[in-house]
Structures are given as C-alpha cells and as structure tokens.
Amino acid sequence: MNKDLILLGHGSGGKLSHQLLDQLIIPSLSGVSLTGQNDAAVVYHEGNRLAFTTDSYVVDPIFFPGGNIGDLAVNGTVNDLAMVGARPLHMSVGLIIEEGFSMSDLSVILASMRLAADLAGVAIVTGDTKVVPRGKADRIFINTSGIGILEHQLHISGSGARVGDKVIINGTIGDHGIAVLAARDGLEFVADIQSDTAALYGLVAELLTEGEYLHVLRDPTRGGVATTLKEIALQSNVTIRLQEAALPVKSQVSGVCSILGLDPLHIANEGKLVAVVAADAAERVLAIMRRHPLGLDAAVIGEVVDASAGKMVMETVVGGIRGVYMLTGEQLPRIC
C-alpha cells in the first residue's frame, strides 16, 4: 500500500482518521494538545466563553429515512456546540453544488435546513455557494460553521472522565448509519429504521443543571460509540468498561448488523450523546434524559474503572471481558 495516498478510511472518524490528524493535520495547522481536541473549540472574547466549530457533510444518499443532508448539517453543527455545553447562536452554510443538480431537490434541502435551524434556535447568518462542473462533485456537499456561548462556568471536555464515573447514552445506537446504508443499497429487508438526526442542545440544557457532576459530553457520529469512548479514554487517560447487555440497540439494527457482519458500536449516530457523569449523579441524569423526547431509551452503559493509558473493554453478555477499539478502516463510507 502506498502510504503517500489518502484512503477512504482516513475519513471514517476511526483509527486512520486519528493518525491523519495526529501525524499531519494538527501539527501542521495548530498543534492543539490531545486534551483540547473536542467537538468544538472554546475561545475567550471580552470575558465571555464562546464555542466555535466547523464540519462538512457529504452523505450518500442525500435523502434518507428520517432526514436529508440539509437538516443533518444543521443538527450536526448544533450538536458539536452543545457537546461543550454551548448554546448555539449563529452558523454559516457553504454549498458546493454539482452542475445539473435538481433545483427542486435543492429547495427541499434548504427548507429543511431553515426548519432545523429554527427548531434549534440558531440563526443562519452567512454563507457561500459554488457550482462545479458535472462530474467534479457528487450532487451537493455542505460545509457549516457554528458559534455558541457558554452561559456557565463548567468545563466539559473529553479529558474530564474520572475513575468511578458512569457512562450514559440517551438512546439506541446505530440508527443513522443503518438508515443511510439501507437507503443507499436498497436493502428491502430493512424496515422502519429512521435516522436519529436531531438537535441535542435542548436536552443538554437540562443536563447542565447537574453542574460539576457533568464531566464529559460527546456525540458518537463517525466511528460510532466505540470510537467516541476510546477518544474519551485516551484524552482522560482512563479505562472505560462497557456492559454489552446494557447497550440499547433496536432489534432491526441488530439484525442488519448480524446479517452484514457489522458492529453496532462502530455505526454512526446523529441524535445521540454520551454523557460521562459522577456516579452520585447517574440516576438523576438518567431521569432527566428519560423525561426528554430525545432520551426515552436512555441507559447507563458502562463506567470508568481505572486510571490507565486510554483503554476500553467490554463485559460481554456471557461474562467475559474483551477489548473494544476504534473503527479501523472505513466500515460505511459517506455516512455524514
């Protein structure tokens, strides 16, 4: 393999992505430390703490059960701000459109973006549009950036996990990735699986009431829950142990994964968050989630068990212990 070439796996959000970031992109551009590599950057301006994030969306297909590339882009940006505890304020939208793209499809996408922004309470205030020749893109790509404000004194970061903390997720895993896969490949045996794309700040605002007990928030998008928790373990230098029996997975998602040889822990989500909280607050956080429409299936799925070099393990349903690792390669390309 030619190591000079970029592979699809470098965009997976998994091991290859982290190698590309750690070995080339971050050292070249900023040198930000591992502890500072969160879903959004926190910056200071005139006494205020602001959050800033950017993302690009290349999902294929652009329309899928439960959403489309437009509301996905807005919700994803809002969620990256929310994962550092920031209330979203403003965002930009950059459109890269291929010549020949349908004007009516663009209209639907833009309308869904506006609706998603209105529901999330964020204003789209600036942007850019480019059209490239036919064959030089794939229909439409969307880039977004977002700014939010932290209206509290908490420091929510991937480096905040502590021994004894509980790991909680707000609902079932793998829904988005399987919904997109089914739409892309025409899997007729996959029924009633919808993307979970949603803006999470409303739920996060309620979780912030737990104050200093709330240590980490992350949305497990590319690379899934496994990759996200591995990132947290590395940033916090701890060992996280999952309970396989506690993982909330819809039977349809589990069935598709079994047939295709996929692991739900590595499947992308777009309306889920992982919260790492002090053990004393776990039941309260779980109750807050379950009272919210986006947290009805919330569950405690693990705990931080040791201070060590960024490990993650899982207790299986038969009582064994196995290692859990970042996604290697590209399991489902063009998923967000």
Question: Summed up, what is this model?
Answer:
The chain is built from eight helices and 14 strands. The protein is an alpha+beta fold and 336 residues long.
Helix content: 25-40%
Main sheet properties: 7 strands, mixed
Structural class: alpha+beta
Distance between the termini: 27 Å
- Overall mean pLDDT stands at 93
| H-E string | HEEEEHEHEEEHHEHEHEHEEE
Give me the Rg, rounded: 19 Å
Gross morphology is: globular
How big a fraction of the residues is strand?
25-35%
Q: Count the strands?
A: 14
Biggest β-sheet: strands ordered side by side in the sheet: 9-11-8-12-10-13-14
Number of helical stretches of at least 4 residues: 8
The low-pLDDT segments are none
Protein topology:
Blueprint: H1 15-29, E1 41-45, E2 48-57, E3 63-64, E4 67-68, H2 69-82, E5 87-98, H3 103-120, E6 123-132, E7 140-150, E8 166-169, H4 175-185, H5 201-207, E9 214-218, H6 224-236, E10 239-243, H7 251-260, E11 274-277, H8 282-291, E12 299-306, E13 311-315, E14 321-323
Parallel strand pairs: 5-6, 10-13
Antiparallel strand pairs: 1-2, 2-7, 3-4, 5-7, 8-11, 8-12, 9-11, 10-12, 13-14
Helix pairs in contact: 2-3
